[in-house]
Amino acid sequence: MKIKSQKDFWSGLMFMVAGIAFAWGATNYSIGEGARMGPGYFPLMLGILLAGIGLFVTFEAMVVETEDGEKIGKAAWKPLFFIITSNLIFGVLLAGLPALKIPAMGLIVAIFALTFVAALAGEEFKAKEVAVLATVLAIGSYLAFIVMLKLQFPVWPSFITG
């Protein structure tokens, strides 16, 4: 069988590998059942769903004809760098890095930093739009994680809250 869309084929394989890895990793936890879910239930179902989507996309890449075969282009290094960097910065700012004496800056500062650094990955950067997006994300995250779920992690920098 001939691959008719390289992008879809390799994307589907990537989804299948990630899904199988999540499902396999979830088997180390108690799965439970639908009525009494264990900690491994959600990652198992998510992994199975992701692998299923990958299987469908891979199958479609071998069946559906495309105009030019949708060849895979060169690697997008700039977006890759800024997206990974923004996630690392988020983690460090959220919890701090005691080994390097970096204090926890909290959820709000971490979300603003994540949004601004990730926005650098795009073709154009509009500070006003990014600031609005960061504000909406910060408020939404605060409401979802702190108010509704009552999770216990720093919201503001530790030098402000004491």
Automatic annotation (TrEMBL):
It comes from Ramlibacter agri. InterPro entries: DUF1468. It comes from the Bacteria. The lineage of its organism: Bacteria, Pseudomonadati, Pseudomonadota, Betaproteobacteria, Burkholderiales. The chain crosses the membrane at residues 12-32, 44-64, 76-96, 102-121, 130-149. This is Tripartite tricarboxylate transporter TctB family protein. Keywords: Membrane, Transmembrane, Transmembrane helix. Residues 10-154 form the DUF1468 domain.
